Amino acid sequence: MFQGKYLFLGLLFAVVLSGCGKESSEVEFGKSALYWYQKVGKGIAHEQLDKADSAFVSLKSEHMHSPFIPKAMLLLAKGHMDNEEYLLANYYLDAYAKRYGATQADETIAFLKLKALFFSVKDVYKDQKLIMDTIAKASSYRLRYPNSEYLSLVNTMLIRLQMSQYLLNENIAALYERTGKKKAAKIYRAKNKGSVVELKDITPPKKDWIGKIFD
Question: Residue 164's closest CA among 115, 129, 214?
Answer without folding.
Answer: 129
